[in-house]
Amino acid sequence: MSRLLDRNREIGAFVPQQDDDLIICRCEEITKGEIRRAVHEGMWTLTEVKRFLRAGMGLCQGQTCGRLVKGIVAKELGVRPSELEDTTARCPTRPVEMQVFGNEVHGHE
Amino acid sequence: MRIQKHPILDRIQKGRQVTFSLDGKPMQGYEGEPIAAALLAAGVRVHRYTTKARQPRGIFCAIGRCTDCVMVVDGKPNVRTCVTPLKEGMRVQTQVGISAKKESDDHETI
Amino acid sequence: MSKNGEVIIIGGGVIGCAAAYYLAKQGVSVLVLEERMIGHGGSSRNGGGVRQSARDVRELPIAMYGIKNLWPTLSEELGVDVEYHQDGNLRLAKTEKHIDILQNLVDNSRKSGLEVTMISGGQARELCPYMSEEVIAASWCPTDGHANPMLTTLAYYRKARMMGVHFITGEKVVKLKKAKGRIRKVLTQSGNVYEADTVILAAGFPSRAIANTVGIDIPMFKELNECLVTEMQPPMFWQMLGTAEADFYGHQTKHGSFVFGGSSGMEYYYRNQADFAHETSITPASVCRGIMKYFPALSGAKIIRNWAGWIDVCADRVPVIGRVEEVPGLILACGFSGHGFGIAPAVGQILMEIVLEKPVCVDISPLKYDRFHAKA
Amino acid sequence: MKRYELIVIGAGPAGLSAAVEAANAGMSVAVFDENARPGGQLFKQIHKFFGSKEHQAKIRGFRIGQQLLKQAEESGVEVHLNSVVMGIFDLGEITVQHGDGVCHYKGDSILIATGACENMVPFDGWTLPGVMGAGAAQTMMNLHGVQPGSRVLMVGSGNVGLVVSFQLLQAGVEVAAVIDAAPQIGGYGVHAAKLARIGVPFYLSHTIVKAEGTDHVTGAVIAQVDESFRPIAGTEKHLDVDTVCIAVGLSPMSQLARMAGCEMTEKGGAVPVVDEYGQTSIPGLFVAGDVGGIEEASSAMIGGRIAGAAAARRSGYLPEEEFREKASALKASLGQLHEGMFSPKNKGRRDLTVTDEGYLLSKTLLHHGYLSEEEVAGFPGAAPGKSAGIHPVIECTQNIPCNPCQDACRFGCIRVGDHMTALPAVAENARCVGCGMCVASCPGQAIFLVNDEEEAGTATVTLPYEFLPVPEKGAKGVALGRDGRVVCPAEVVEAKTAGFMDGTVLLTMRVPLEMSMKARFFKTGEGTK
């Protein structure tokens, strides 16, 4: 079950920070500032941030930046990272070519 | 640089030496080792330039997870070079965005 | 008596968020209650089609209205690029049977005033050179297109929130209650009670159980829908694609990745009916095979993600939209049957018009909740 | 569809151990791993493991990997390599990509043992080629025999940062510094001491501010941090490096558990909730190793065996009583590894000031990576007067789970006791014959043999040496102190090794008498520091 979130809760205004231009999502080249700003625009779950910015939506599917994004969003919301629900883990765990994905063979031997 | 002799591992076992190309230039490596290892041994650190900011990227996780080290291999973009074994005659190209670096971009290419 | 806004919207999907936005624009105070998160359900899990072709004639006017009046300026209006592309829709045929299906759809659509035509395989390949020779004909609707459903939903939410709409997520509605003959209370699993004079129920399949609590039923079931997304590809084509049998559909996104949806034919028998929509082990492979037959050039594209969601399928495969006469104050907007995204902006506006008792922009009477009857 | 009684995902220490346990109980077992080689991280671990004999202490990680593979083969486990488990589905089904196709398999039980991945920390320039995970560097040098760079800055002083730094040195790579934002070294003191005595500087309460370079790393800037871990202006320091390694912790790779719908909890990352045998909220779905919470390979192997046994019980191959007996023995063994100041329950604690025995912990060790001479003398392994003539000096001052030194001395000079984490003590009047077995057996390389030759005014110090080239007898050079500084001239009098030492050389150097408790490393040539 999702945590109850009143999206009207005051989290303060967006204040620019010195390292806002740091790349956080290396695949989609999304910066810390973009993530922080998205939170202030109402993206309060990791999934919303991802869908809004594409952070974690690239080739590695958030396997590198997931933890970092979580930390930034949590800090912006003033909650513990563990309070944030991870984005959904989906198949495939690694990129797979369409012609391989569609080639269902039976048994290893 | 390759480790010639290691105090614990002695000589690290390798496959046969093969030739492949990077952006058209011939390179040497060992069959079966990750493409990334062969490139690193040859001092090549830049694998690609990113789509948006055209920033250089190279080996980062080396276990096939982060996808930062992808290159165009035999014409296919986004190939994870840290987990793709090297083969004789492989055509490896620096990736720019999702395409191969144009040969004309490379002044060293003859 | 306490009150939490003039209108409570149950469901923070694209319909709920769009309605909230258009209501807020009219100065109405709105509270949106969402069980999970914004755009959790079908709103973020669809192929992104913004099309009129192959629509049931009962909902076609809504689609046409939205494409004519709302979609073209939506990004500007909401301040977020929702990646709307109006580059046409090709619905593909590989067999004579397919051609018959498409011809029938084209004929019906044209009667409703939609500019859609049948074209040959060759003409289709001129529009989209990547298409294989297996395509022998297609329907072509140049005013159709696609948009990014995740961004569209979040853009409506973002703007509505900026305009003062109150959103509460993680709040699962379990019961509606009437008072003095009208809808009044909304009760949630967490024990909270919200009150309003008007309640819009736009919660996808769970709408059925919620409506049941005031004695209203909507004949619908939930069906698993699966999509897959590829790694970024070079720009190839911008049309929205579909097939005569609707077994696969998709488009290339602004980002460059392709999003394709499709079915394995086993959806009806999917045994796992848990709330969480898990992708199956068989459908994505089947969809991949389908895509490669139509677009061989994509066979080397890597799939980076599959996803699944529930479709709220109505008995006659068109949504229920409108007031419930038996429960004054209750407005339904559910049962979109897998094609709600493209009409969401228009439905949002329509819901605003219903709430404010304004003239509704198109005739929605064929979509009323009590239209269902057993066969004679 | 092909069905196994147990499917194991991940051929690392946990997965292989589970597979062997289950197969030995009679189950049909298949292991799938995405890598070209099995063993997970074991084959990158070229250092000797801690623990006791039953935990395969003093054996190098890759050898343990070789043993596990042999066991897997003997027990009939099918190990499928280059096989990516793409997804996990309802009713115990997985899809596996292998070559140019995808296979479906079902398991009566499934064990997820996908391990962990490295955490990362963003800083200016962190996307430049040359910035990489410490594990990435380890993979390149220890698996593929390629140096990750020529001069490295290590960010993070946990065990991974320390161990990989040492391995970089072994691979012929320079280590410019080890830094950590925390005010003290996170990993084992003995690992830090190995680096410090070679001259690797530690900068605690320091962070990396920037990796410099346009196309790849050409330098790095570090700076001291305040209590909120923010860099303090004016404390910047430039380092000439071409590589920056990040070792700031690991996170469980639990995507498959989440995909399966396991109930999750937080334990250094999302991990599935498990029962005492590693079974998740989904009956028949187990996890073992780092994917269930970060520990180390020895614990992962025991955890794997417990889960493997539980799967065997579930399928009726292990009677309840036999299972309980086995599980409780394994858990006792795991419990031994979980004792002491570095136990999982003490993770991240920085307030410990004394050992379990009440000895004051060395502050210089925690802050600079080495023990001061005065501090060494206060510990039971090195107290003055413990032994005359040749005798071991054990510079092991933290409660780590390890006791091979106790078994190494056949004269019983060294005692750890029943609790593996107790500090080793050298007995009074110990009869030391100078065999050096203790020096060779210590995974922390923390034991030295000291022989004060009073008449000659010299002393010999025997130290463990794992570098190339090995200095030959008669080689002249300098002795380095615990802090890596030159303390005196030194001459090699013996360099001996044996097969069982597995690459460790016992290097004996002659130093002036008064330097016997100062000289701890040998460097060929004239050191001029």
Tell me the structural class of chain C: alpha/beta
Order of helices and strands of chain A: EEEHHHEHE
Just give the CATH class of chain A.
Mainly Alpha
Radius of gyration of CA atoms of chain C, rounded to a whole number: 20 Å
How is the biggest beta sheet of chain C arranged? 6 strands, mixed
What is the CATH homology-level superfamily of chain A? BFD-like [2Fe-2S]-binding domain
Word description of this protein:
The complex is a heterotetramer of chains A (109), B (110), C (376) and D (529). Chain A is built from 4 helices and 5 strands. Chain A is 30% helix and 10% strand. The model of chain A has no long low-confidence stretch (mean pLDDT 94). Chain B is mostly beta strands and 110 residues long. Chain B has a single domain (17-101), classed as 2Fe-2S iron-sulphur cluster binding domain, sarcosine oxidase, alpha subunit, N-terminal domain (Ubiquitin-like (UB roll)), CATH 3.10.20.440. Helices cover 6% and strands 29% of the residues of chain B. Chain B is built from 1 helix and 9 strands, in the order ββαβββββββ. In chain B, the strands form 2 sheets. Chain B has a 5-stranded mixed β-sheet, covered by helices on one side. A 4-stranded mixed β-sheet of chain B has the order 4-3-8-9, with no helix packed on it. The mean pLDDT of chain B is 93. Chain C has a domain at 7-47 and 150-219 and 316-371: FAD/NAD(P)-binding domain, CATH 3.50.50.60. Chain C has 9 helices and 19 strands. Chain C has a 6-stranded mixed β-sheet. In chain C, strands 5-6-4-14 form a 4-stranded mixed β-sheet. The mean pLDDT of chain C is 95. At the A-B interface, loops of A face loops of B.
